[in-house]
């Protein structure tokens, strides 16, 4: 993965991240967030995956139903945020994946392996966001 700071305006920073074939998105984003000490950021991305795992949150089970995607797909839209959790920065991302026939899959991104590229624009805010465990859902939710 390559990254470059595009702008720094009073603590609001904008980065571009370019992921290459074989890079796993969630790991790269988490590593970048740790290295840059990100506490509040949002991002969007486009590109393609060779394979992925998306998730649908099952309210009754309080866990994500894993949906494997075992084919080359376009990343039509990838949106997410970064917030601080108990163990450091946490990435929350949703994705829309386009199949060769024009149909789409969508859900929470659990894993995504890039092929050939993923172009990410990430903007850090000078304010901090905190995620706290929510007993009802079992998820770490942003608390203002």
SSE blueprint:
Blueprint: E1 2-9, E2 12-20, H1 25-36, E3 40-58, E4 63-69, E5 73-85, E6 88-98, E7 104-124, E8 130-133, E9 140-143
Antiparallel strand pairs: 1-2, 2-7, 3-4, 3-5, 3-7, 5-6, 6-7, 8-9
Short recap of the structure:
This protein has 144 residues and is mainly beta.
Over all CA atoms, what is the radius of gyration?
15 Å
Architecture per CATH nomenclature, i.e. the level-2 architecture = 2-Layer Sandwich
Helix and strand composition category: mainly beta
CATH superfamily: Hypothetical protein, similar to alpha- acetolactate decarboxylase, domain 2
Number of helices: 1
Number of folding domains?
A: 1
Number of strands: 9
**General shape:** flat
Give your account of this protein's structure.
The chain has about 140 residues and is mostly beta strands. The protein has a single domain, classed as 60s Ribosomal Protein L30, Chain: A, CATH 3.30.1330. Helices cover about 10% and strands about 65% of the residues. It has one helix and nine strands; from the N terminus they run E-E-H-E-E-E-E-E-E-E. The strands form two sheets. Strands 1, 2, 3, 4, 5, 6 and 7 form a seven-stranded antiparallel β-sheet that branches. Strand 5 and strand 6 form a beta hairpin. The termini are far apart. The model has no long low-confidence stretch (mean pLDDT about 95).
């Amino acid at each position: 993965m390559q990254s470059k700071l595009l702008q720094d305006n009073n603590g609001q920073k904008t980065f571009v991240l370019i992921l290459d074939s074989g890079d796993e998105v969630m790991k790269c984003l988490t590593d970048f967030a740790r290295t840059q000490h990100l506490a509040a950021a949002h991002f969007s991305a486009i590109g393609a995956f060779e394979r992925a795992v998306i998730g649908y949150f099952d309210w009754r089970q309080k866990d994500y139903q894993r949906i494997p995607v075992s084919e080359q797909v376009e990343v039509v839209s990838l949106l997410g945020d970064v917030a601080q959790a108990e163990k450091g920065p946490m990435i929350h991302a949703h994705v829309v994946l386009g199949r060769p026939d024009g149909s789409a899959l969508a859900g929470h991104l659990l894993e995504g392996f890039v092929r050939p590229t993923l172009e990410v624009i990430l903007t850090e805010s000078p304010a901090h966001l905190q995620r706290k465990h929510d007993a009802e859902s079992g998820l770490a939710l942003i608390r203002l």
